[in-house]
Amino acid sequence: MRILLVALNAKYVHTNLAIRYLRESVKGEFPEVEIREFTINEPIERIEAEIFEAKADVIGFSCYIWNLKETLAVIRQLRPTSPRTRILVGGPEVSFEADCFLRENTEIDAVVLGEGEVTLLELLRAWELGANLAEVSGLAWRNPQNQEIMINQHRQQLAMTKLPNPYGGKEDFQGRLAYVETIRGCPFNCQYCLSSTFQGVRYLPPERFREIIRRALSCGARTIKLVDRTFNVNKEHSFRILDIAREEAAHYPTEAGVRVHCEMAGELLDEDWLDYLRDYPKDLVQFEIGVQSTNPETLSIICRPQHFDRWAKYIREIQEMNKAHLHLDLIAGLPKEGWSSFRMSFNEVYAVQPDMLQLGFLKVLKGSGLRERSEQYGLIYAPDPPYSILQTADLSHEEILRLHRLEDILDRYYNSGRFGRTLDWVIQQYPTPFDFYHEFAEYWRNQGWFKQNWSAKALFEKLWHFWDSQKSGSEPSSLTSIQERLRYDYYLWERPSFFPDFLLPSQETLPPDYSEQRQALQRDRRWENLIAEYNQMDRRQWQRATAVDYFCEPQPQWVLFFYKNGKASCYPIDNPI
């Protein structure tokens, strides 16, 4: 029996952990099993053609809110030319309301409900032997005799000790993410999340994790993303996993480096975490922490009580250590979170200055508590996946559209990391950070800029035009203030071969001997002791790797920028020649 397991990922860099677990779970009895991955942006015809030409007897698709539409389109195109092929689906998007799903999608023979490692194996055995599918737990299926939809009994959760290494096959993870699971389940009961529908937390033995990460790294992976819902639920487990990650990553001391991404609960951070991280290698870990909201009433409704004002201090201390990249998440569209409440949540989280502030929008998922109580909170959401929130009793559709535009601007400017000095100053000119991003986003809308794609270089100009049109009339000197900071950020982004006109400083702000002093400072011998690479470069190489300029704000100062591996280091010159 030939078996093909298929995933349509959101992007090429993504990989699918589920189909790898399934492949390793069945290949002992069904060796003719392989996986194929595509992206949702590829033509449906091309995907269908490759699947058809594999000539599989059984084809399984991994389904999520971001790929269900495209996956069903592939299945509908595949079925007419493959009438005898058995087609099944699995994943969180089809594990709820499976009977309705099968009635609406007659091309599909069966749905694996929940965890599928054992269910798929038993289903393949039954199909091969012609046995009764009613004996396969965790399955919804269509009776071929009368087309009746059958829902079998629920399957018990699988102990993680029984899971295979998902990376048992040959892989090439160069430039792609490798997903790893060390925990199944979640201690929290968040009503917007499907993890609330399962009880208990199960752990992968740490030495099993070592086998998995070692294999993934040997296949070229450099970003390991843990899919654990709450990685820090058990400190002993978390610290041992991070110990192993450090030990295994030490074998790959490349310039790009290894990074392990963990989803954390801020409420579970404490002094033990600070003590642990003090001796941890810089940049090896990235923490994503879901704040979601700082409104107590909202947090109570979604069953995620937390006190951001208490645990934000740990975030600040981790930042001061400079050991981990920190991403904080907010969700717009939660119950009882109106415009003013969300504005407050945004400002409180922004004040912590995480490396990224990810603004997401509520997805009213099948099986979630919020979906069941959507009428109570006036939740109006898209009828098709990903079921994005459109309106609530507290937030109008117009306000949600404004927040989408704000999210776009936040990603382009704050999350890009290119405008640090400029944003620090600009934000101070507004009542709150939220007010700046909102006003800037509405300016983009009025200019029609959201309709086009813009280069990173163009974003500098957009911010300049916004400030020039909005603020320069009442405060002419502010143009110099923002220009100097934009120019500094421009240098930090790349070594410029030339400057656009709006970033050229006026002669009044420059020293009289600007050009001569600039050249002399670039050639100054002081860099021999400050920058190790200086002695390894000839004069031409040094000139290409550096730039010197004078800035009159925030204080008059010369600065040398040194560029290496796409990153810039800056060296303020306290004693110019």
Automatic annotation (TrEMBL):
Residues 172-410 form the Radical SAM core domain. It comes from Desulfitobacterium dichloroeliminans (strain LMG P-21439 / DCA1). Keywords: Iron, Iron-sulfur, Metal-binding, S-adenosyl-L-methionine. GO terms for cellular component: cytosol. This is Fe-S oxidoreductase. InterPro entries: BchE-like, Cobalamin-bd, Cobalamin-bd_sf, DUF4080, Elp3/MiaA/NifB-like_rSAM, Methyltransferase_Class_B, rSAM, rSAM_horseshoe. It comes from the Bacteria. Residues 1-134 form the B12-binding domain. GO terms for molecular function: 4 iron, 4 sulfur cluster binding; catalytic activity; cobalamin binding; metal ion binding. PROSITE patterns: B12_BINDING, RADICAL_SAM. Its cofactor is [4Fe-4S] cluster. The keyword Iron applies.
